[in-house]
Specification:
Elements (H helix, E strand, L loop, with lengths): L1 H29 L11 H20 L3 H23 L3 H17 L10 H23 L5 H19 L3 H21 L8 H18 L13 H5 L1 H16 L12 H7 L4 H22 L4 H23 L6
Amino acid sequence: MFSIYFFLILYGFFLGLVFIYMLKRFSLRHNLLMPQGTPLIGGIGMGLSFIFVALFFLINQGLSKEIAGIIVSSSLMLAFGVFDDWRELSIGSKFLMQIIATSILVLFGVRTQIVYIGNILNIVITFIWVLGITNAFNHLDIMDSLASGVAIIVSAAFLAISILNADMRSATLCLILIGAVLSFFLGNRPPAKIYMGNAGSHWLGFILAAIALIISYAPLDRKAALLSPLLILGLPIFDTTFLVLIRLIKKSVPFKKSNDHLVLRLSALGYSKKKVLLIMFGLCLFFCLCGIASSRVPNYLGVGIVAFAALASLIIGIKMSKTTVNG
């Protein structure tokens, strides 16, 4: 069993390296997708690696409707992202493309399954969830290795829950994703030789949001476990919420670029880039461990874990809001 896990990661990793190498050479030779002199091909490479390896393994196992939906819709999201990197779409156009990809995901049956709230509300929540996480990862991609490192940690957390629940289809997706993202992570370490671009950051958020929807977290009597995916993806959610609130307090447009990001405030405190990354990865691991624990413990303990994570987020948010940044 463990040899299968190892090879899934290995295939995703090596195919990602091949795609990234070929795309980088093509980008440099033809001067394409290089707005800052560094190729924006990392997202395409890891996305293609995930899609090809997932198709190869899961077709042999029997491709379910939900898995097919994730592959089709994420492929579309990747294509939209490449076009965005090439032509720099408006905010409205980006949202429209994300809505189209999410609609296809929902049509394939991938959505929340919250009992007693009905299909329409479940679909609404699914759109909010997928669009929110997709854009949260785009906001997170502001420092070399940050978004990819967080994606690896989050994928590992979803993998742990999948294995504990003997859910091999979700585990397979997580393993392939870890390998594919690792292939990019190596080339994106400071100083970065490649970037993932909007194609990569939007695709990563989309694929993780989709995988989170097909995992079963706990029986119905443990309602706190419903919040497990929120905790596991707690860092990008916290980072985006913090960013939006700060911008609203400053009476600026929430989607307008600024230097209010959490990582930039950590840098303003005097931490090196390496230490900032370690702090962010440590915070991501904290949220993920809380998410895994809340899916395994009795309901009252799960509520306590959620409350603890929320309190920690509030304390960190208040402290970081007092940090002065330039500009």
